[in-house]
Amino acid sequence: MDIKEKVQSLPLTPGVYLMKDAHGSIIYIGKSKSLRKRVQSYFYNSQSHAPKIKRLVHHVKDLEIIQTDTEFEAFLLECSLIHKYKPMYNRKMKNPMAYSYIMVPNSDGLRRVEITHSPAPAKDRVVFGPYTANRSTVDKAVQRIQECFKIACSHTAAGAATPCLNHSLGLCLGMCLGGESLHKYNELMNQFIGLLEGSDTSLYEEMEQQMTAASERFDFETAAKFRDGIKSVNFLLHKEKVIGFVEENRNIAIYEFMNDDTIKLFLIKRSTVLFSGKFHVDSSDITQMQEEVKALISAYFILDQTAYTAEVGRDEIDEAQIIYSYLQNNASHYLMIPDEWLDLEKQVEFNQELASWLRPRDQDEEEHE
Q1: What is the mean pLDDT of residues 50-54?
Q2: 83-118 per-residue burial string, b: 16 or more CB within 10 A, e: under 16
Q3: C-alpha separations of 263 from 6, 25, 68, 292 in Å
Q4: Per-residue pLDDT tens for 201-236?
Q5: Cα dihedral 37/42/44/47 (nearest 10)
Q6: Could you report the per-residue pLDDT of 283-336, keeping only the tens digit for each?
Q7: Which of 5, 154, 252, 290 is at a distance of 20 to 30 A from 325, taking alpha carbons?
Q8: CA-CA distance, 133 to 218, in Å (whole number)?
Q9: Among candidate residues 190, 148, 155, the one with its CA nearest the CA of residue 175
Q10: This prediction's pTM
């Protein structure tokens, strides 16, 4: 059976596909809610494909699939397999250099923002990340924010006899000369740190105000500069939200409908799936199922004594993004389990929330999907 015949025989179910070259080596791993439809898209209408897709398809000589019960499961399996096999075309998760960190010194003086792949521990600086984007993307985002507030100094230290080149370009307040401009610079750097930490939104608010004011006076070049700066802030903050979400070590219960009367339940701590299993959903015995799920939640989240580090590492950021993104999906079914719900004496609210959350599929929901 040649590759196109194999593609035609694929199921219309969720799963992961592993593309192989003539030597049997895995060169690409992907996932889909419908395996046949997704894989077919590589081999048809190829004229509209990007060059890298055309190169991939040219080298694909065989195909292997792993079916999953749900789309969420396919996302997690894809991530795990990419980490394991490191295919040449899955560059994002393969390359450790794809992860970047932002470092800002806590010391006085001309503090420089540094973008790095491997931050060494130090008490005199604040570190944000990892960001699942290459260094140049993160660097460009930081640079756009700096240019909005004229803190993109090109000197390495304050107290210079002459201002830096960026000062003449209107990108530097003159902090390289020291004095009041350096004081203002350090105030802005503290606001920048607060912005990434989520404790100070004043820079973001000022960018919005500046963009609006520039538009009203028809200064579209300046408005575009602040618009791009706002996009950069949103990019960086989204990544920080993912990391912050995982660092809270939440207990999460998720389920997906496999069909009208069967669900698959996942119990997750941080970015680790502790349990997954299928349940039959029937209105006649829904109470019994809820009790079974409650028992599993209590057992897994109480018994799980894994020591999680405060910092989110590279090895879990991809899984964290999958879980975080899934929870932002309007069609998702999830329930956060506060630790107090696991106390046997304080489970009234737990019982109420569980009964409301875990229920048979209704008609409106089925049509939405």
Answers
A1: 87
A2: bebebebbeebeeeebbbbbbbbeeeebbebebebe
A3: 29, 35, 13, 13
A4: 999 999 999 999 999 999 999 999 999 999 999 988
A5: 140
A6: 777 888 889 999 999 889 875 555 555 566 666 777 888 888 888 876 678 999
A7: 290
A8: 34
A9: 155
A10: 0.69
Instruction: Supply 73's token pair.
Output: 């499961």
| Tokens linked to 214 | 């520039």
